């Protein structure tokens, strides 16, 4: 299959083009990109699993407001994030933005953090899919182990990862529309049958945001949005990316936030504001089904369980797409071996990146199964939490990169998009990131003396350091590759970015192959 990979000529075709490999362009409209972003957030999975867990663990009823606050913070982050996407179109997304804003060394550091974060999140989701699927099949009399179910999902994700991206977008669209429809029906049923006999808005009291537990709730709630940033990863495959990605990213954040907030409030109404915490602790992930079960036909509960399963599958597919495109971006710029930077001749999919992620996730599934580990706690719980920390680190670094980029180019966007929103987002994300790093052990339920209280955060530090060291090596050993870092599909002439100056002998040879550009852009 690798012999079928090819290099697509660039639009300009000139000798100054540094990148010739491209993904399948003009494939995705706003709705398809939104499907990828919201599918990564897996709203039904969040509503069934995360919301009841946060109620139970934290014991505070401010959750509906917390989701609104988190959505507002991420919306502010998105302002600068998508403003930068109008100037930089690259499937590397975070990696590319950080390299433009904070320098190539930190860009490569961000790339390795991104690969680690998205890979662990996707691998961890196989544990949840396996457990949920096994339970669903068991309910109809079919016995299947979690690992067998996970491997079936793995096969489908591996195959679809190498097909047309718009095909995955259509599949995600169908699953997501059905998922949202069921969530709205469940919310309506819970609100129509209040546990206290009347609809209560007690959980919407703003005074609850002043309680000390709110920061911990924000740390947990932000995981329900992880995946929305994948919209920018698809920028090279979008129709009119400068408009499509902006609209899709804002819609993905707002849709995820409103759905989570509405469902968290509806659950508090259905159980009763005074009993929601106790019910969440006893019912756990069955809380939603126990609240709606007495009021809907059995078929609606069955559909809920099935869509819970497909919600996880949709998230698997979305994260697989994100990881493979990050690998493609790094291969295209020869930070990874160049083979990673080629696409399939018919589908335009990043085949080697897709295969690599499939192999890694297969190794994780089989490794956890062979070790007899708990797939729900140690595979899904640990890996997705750690992956979420990595994504939060990337958002924090990207908000700093946006500030730096627009300080150098102050007239490209207005004051709100270039300064006010990015600076505000950086401050708010700094608070959340600090709280996450400090409280990660509590989130994972680790003992105070466990090495993993700090090992996961330190692991990202090691990845970042390796990225910086690798970029420094590339800077002096392959200056043409260093110059191309983060520049992706822009097809800009390399000498425009040369830093530092090349030794004389190398410079002469390099400039004879890449003529100096007639104009300079950043």
Automatic annotation (TrEMBL):
<dbReference type="GO" id="GO:0016020">
    <property type="term" value="C:membrane"/>
</dbReference>
<feature type="transmembrane region" description="Helical">
    <location>
        <begin position="382"/>
        <end position="407"/>
    </location>
</feature>
<feature type="transmembrane region" description="Helical">
    <location>
        <begin position="64"/>
        <end position="85"/>
    </location>
</feature>
<feature type="transmembrane region" description="Helical">
    <location>
        <begin position="299"/>
        <end position="326"/>
    </location>
</feature>
<feature type="transmembrane region" description="Helical">
    <location>
        <begin position="451"/>
        <end position="473"/>
    </location>
</feature>
<protein>
    <submittedName>
        <fullName>Amino acid permease</fullName>
    </submittedName>
</protein>
<dbReference type="InterPro" id="IPR004841">
    <property type="entry name" value="AA-permease/SLC12A_dom"/>
</dbReference>
<feature type="transmembrane region" description="Helical">
    <location>
        <begin position="419"/>
        <end position="439"/>
    </location>
</feature>
<feature type="transmembrane region" description="Helical">
    <location>
        <begin position="172"/>
        <end position="194"/>
    </location>
</feature>
<feature type="transmembrane region" description="Helical">
    <location>
        <begin position="33"/>
        <end position="58"/>
    </location>
</feature>
<dbReference type="Pfam" id="PF00324">
    <property type="entry name" value="AA_permease"/>
</dbReference>
<dbReference type="InterPro" id="IPR050367">
    <property type="entry name" value="APC_superfamily"/>
</dbReference>
<feature type="transmembrane region" description="Helical">
    <location>
        <begin position="214"/>
        <end position="236"/>
    </location>
</feature>
<feature type="domain" description="Amino acid permease/ SLC12A">
    <location>
        <begin position="33"/>
        <end position="474"/>
    </location>
</feature>
<feature type="transmembrane region" description="Helical">
    <location>
        <begin position="248"/>
        <end position="267"/>
    </location>
</feature>
<keyword id="KW-0472">Membrane</keyword>
<keyword id="KW-1133">Transmembrane helix</keyword>
<feature type="transmembrane region" description="Helical">
    <location>
        <begin position="144"/>
        <end position="165"/>
    </location>
</feature>
<feature type="transmembrane region" description="Helical">
    <location>
        <begin position="106"/>
        <end position="132"/>
    </location>
</feature>
<feature type="transmembrane region" description="Helical">
    <location>
        <begin position="347"/>
        <end position="370"/>
    </location>
</feature>
<keyword id="KW-0812">Transmembrane</keyword>
<dbReference type="GO" id="GO:0055085">
    <property type="term" value="P:transmembrane transport"/>
</dbReference>
């Amino acid at each position: 299959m690798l012999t079928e990979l090819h290099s697509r000529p660039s639009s300009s075709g000139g000798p100054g083009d540094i990148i010739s490999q491209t993904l399948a362009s003009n494939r995705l409209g706003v709705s398809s990109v939104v499907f990828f972003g919201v599918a990564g957030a897996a709203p039904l999975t969040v509503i069934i699993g995360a919301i009841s867990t946060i109620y139970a663990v934290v014991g505070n009823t401010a959750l509906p407001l917390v989701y609104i606050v988190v959505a507002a913070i991420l919306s502010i982050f998105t302002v600068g994030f998508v403003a930068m996407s109008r100037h930089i179109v690259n499937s590397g997304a975070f990696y590319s933005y950080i390299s433009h804003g904070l320098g190539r060394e930190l860009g490569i550091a961000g790339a390795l953090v991104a690969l680690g974060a998205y890979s662990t999140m996707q691998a961890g989701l196989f544990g949840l899919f396996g457990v949920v699927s096994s339970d669903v099949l068991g309910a109809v009399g079919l016995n299947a182990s979690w690992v067998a179910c996970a491997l079936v999902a793995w096969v489908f994700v591996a195959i679809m990862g190498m097909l047309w991206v718009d095909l995955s977008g259509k599949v995600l669209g169908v699953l997501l529309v059905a998922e949202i429809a069921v969530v709205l029906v469940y919310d309506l049923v819970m609100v129509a049958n209040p546990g206290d006999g009347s609809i209560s808005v007690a959980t919407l009291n703003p005074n609850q945001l002043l309680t000390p537990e709110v920061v911990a709730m924000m740390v947990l709630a932000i995981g329900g949005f992880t995946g929305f940033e994948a919209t920018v990863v698809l920028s090279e495959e979008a129709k009119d990316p400068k408009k499509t990605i902006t609209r899709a990213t804002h819609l993905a954040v707002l849709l995820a936030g409103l759905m989570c907030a509405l469902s968290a409030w509806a659950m508090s109404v259905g159980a009763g504001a005074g009993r929601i915490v106790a019910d969440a602790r006893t019912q756990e992930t069955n809380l939603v089904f126990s609240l709606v079960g007495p009021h809907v036909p059995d078929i609606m509960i069955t559909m809920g369980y099935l869509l819970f399963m497909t919600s996880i599958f949709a998230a698997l597919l979305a994260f697989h797409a994100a990881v493979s495109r990050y690998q493609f971006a790094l291969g295209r710029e020869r930070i990874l071996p160049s083979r990673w930077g080629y696409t399939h001749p018919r589908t335009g999919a990043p085949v080697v990146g897709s295969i690599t992620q499939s192999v890694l996730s297969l190794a994780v599934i089989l490794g956890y199964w062979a070790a007899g580990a708990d797939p729900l706690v140690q595979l899904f719980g640990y890996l997705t939490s750690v992956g979420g920390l990595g994504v939060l680190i990337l958002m924090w670094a990207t908000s700093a990169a946006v500030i730096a980029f627009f300080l150098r180019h102050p007239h490209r966007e207005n004051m709100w998009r270039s300064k006010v929103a990015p600076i505000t987002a950086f401050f708010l994300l700094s608070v959340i990131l600090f709280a996450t790093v400090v409280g990660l052990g509590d989130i994972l339920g680790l003992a105070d003396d466990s090495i993993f209280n700090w090992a996961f955060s330190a692991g990202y530090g090691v990845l970042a350091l390796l990225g910086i060291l690798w970029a420094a090596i590339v800077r002096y050993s392959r200056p043409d590759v260093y110059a191309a870092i983060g520049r992706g599909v822009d097809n800009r002439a390399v000498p425009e970015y040369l830093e530092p100056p090349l030794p004389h002998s190398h410079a002469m040879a390099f400039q004879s192959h890449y003529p100096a550009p007639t104009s300079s852009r950043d």
